[in-house]
Write a structure and sequence with these properties.
Protein name: SET domain-containing protein
Helix content: 40-55%
Order of helices and strands: HEEEEEHHHHHHHEEEEEEEHEHEHHHH
Strand order of the largest sheet: 1-4-10-9
Strand content: 5-15%
Shape: globular
Structural class: alpha+beta
InterPro entries: SET_dom_sf, SETD3_SETD6_MTase
Number of helices: 14
Largest sheet: 4 strands, antiparallel
Bound molecules: 2-acetamido-2-deoxy-beta-D-glucopyranose
Radius of gyration: 24 Å
Length: 426
């Protein structure tokens, strides 16, 4: 395949003026009813008409009629181009700012007052999605919008009933997504959209989910959605890397030799623990090697030692425990003992990287560390039973995210059971 950057179709001019009048939604806005099927194949034709190119053999595929992803029917050697999306078709944070100017900035100020500066690039994408949704059939992006999922399982879509069935870290991340959405909803109230849009939570939540799950952070305060290239699924092993040139054109390349019949996957983020991706994107990456050890009550010890959630891992296959977990638990034990000197000595050994002294402390206090860890693991396993029993008691018709929640909890339980076997044998 040859990529041609000059391939911008004549006649493609996204309309930049948005309507400032308050009126009913135009006929032809995308029907967001959960029973509507995604029109993915018309979108692929539309994309080709606007200059999107794909390597021969790359096809959108679905196993369940809901999740669609590119797959290759032919062998693709490493380094080959797989997809090209011209800049004119992409949504970017900076293009939104240029297009909407003051009316966007006014809304952003509200976000900044809510201390969500770091969400501004995402908000700009959200704003553009809402603007194009409102135009209905008049939007050049209509076929793309109409191809998108109607149902999302992200934290923003979950309810308090869902949060009640999740371990505290997953619940906390999912709830943060929901709170971000609520803040976006408030901020866009000052936007130049019809009342029907601004008051419609279904539309705004859908736009938030679209912006969040289909845009990529490319650094420098810029997020981008490149239609069609937004179809790649996440993998902990990946075949594809996406890059943008100076003109904003999007290129997807194969990073490895890809056999015929393979899905083409990119990375949405750190694959070591599936929970952050679960909360943001609403899927469980079963190939994740581990999970956060759920020591939420030791957050301050974790931060004091300079660790993050991503360091504190239990490994699923082996039941292994990361060394940082032992450090945090021992520090917690020492802080809660009468021996302030020991807590301080251990702290200094950890932050200065004095491995010798550190392991002396670990040897000396091992029975206490082990006991504390066992208490935590056994307690979490009991909690997981309780949370999953609660999830099972919900009606699937009103709580469609129960299966995903159960899947998440089962993943955590399996990991914790292996860790328990190891711990008990130590
Ligand atoms: C919100 O928009 C959706 C999708 O267009 C529509 O089905 C629903 O009836 C609207 N809800 C209200 C309260 O207007
Ligand atoms: C949206 O789609 C649903 C399901 O197909 C249908 O029942 C409903 O009438 C549609 N709404 C509109 C406004 O077309």
């Amino acid at each position: 395949m040859k990529f041609c950057t000059a391939l911008l179709l004549a006649g493609f001019s996204p309309k930049s003026a948005i309507s400032f009048s308050y009126r009913a939604l135009p006929a032809g806005t995308v029907n967001l009813s959960s029973s509507v099927e995604r029109d993915v194949y018309n979108m692929a034709e539309w994309a080709a008409g606007y200059g999107v190119q794909q390597a021969e053999g790359v096809q959108l595929t679905s196993y369940d009629g809901q999740d669609y992803f590119p797959m290759t029917q032919t062998y693709i050697p490493a380094g080959s181009p797989v997809m090209y999306v011209p800049a004119d078709l992409t949504f970017t944070s900076s293009k939104s700012l240029r297009e909407f100017g003051n009316s966007l900035s006014m809304c952003e100020n509200q976000l900044i007052q809510a201390n969500l500066q770091d969400k501004v690039p995402l908000f700009r994408i959200f704003f553009k999605v809402v603007a194009e949704y409102e135009k209905g059939l008049d939007s050049p992006w209509y076929p793309w919008l109409n191809s998108l999922p109607r149902i999302f399982n992200t934290g923003a879509s979950m309810t308090y009933a869902c949060f009640d069935c999740l371990p505290p870290y997953a619940a906390y991340l999912a709830l943060s997504e929901r709170q971000n959405f609520v803040n976006f909803q408030k901020a866009i109230r000052n936007g130049p959209f019809s009342e029907e849009i601004l008051k419609n939570v279904t539309v705004l939540k859908w736009a938030y989910n679209v912006a969040l799950t289909r845009s990529t952070d490319i650094g420098g305060g810029e997020r981008v959605i490149a239609p069609l290239a937004d179809m790649f699924n996440h993998g902990s092993e990946t075949e594809i890397k996406i890059s943008f040139d100076g003109n904003g054109d999007c290129y997807a390349y194969a990073t490895v030799d890809v056999p015929a019949g393979s899905p083409l996957r990119v990375s949405y983020g750190d694959p070591t623990d599936p929970t952050p991706l679960f909360a943001s994107y609403g899927f469980l990456d079963e190939s994740s090697p581990g999970t956060f050890c759920k020591l939420m009550n030791m957050r301050s010890e974790m931060e004091a030692l300079g660790y993050t959630y991503a360091n504190l891992l239990f490994y699923r296959e082996t039941g292994g425990i990361s060394s940082e977990v032992y450090d945090v638990v021992l520090y917690h034990v020492l802080l809660n003992s009468d021996d302030a000197g020991a807590a301080d000595g251990f702290y200094r050994a950890v932050v200065s990287g004095d491995e010798g002294t550190k392991s002396q402390y670990h040897d000396q206090y091992w029975p206490y560390t082990k006991q504390e860890l066992q208490k935590h693991v056994d307690g979490t396993l009991r909690d997981l039973e309780r949370w999953s029993a609660k999830a099972n008691s919900y009606d699937l018709n009103t709580h469609p995210r129960v299966p995903l929640i159960l899947q998440h909890n089962a993943f955590v339980k399996e990991t914790f059971l292996r860790v328990k076997m190891n711990l008990d044998a130590m």
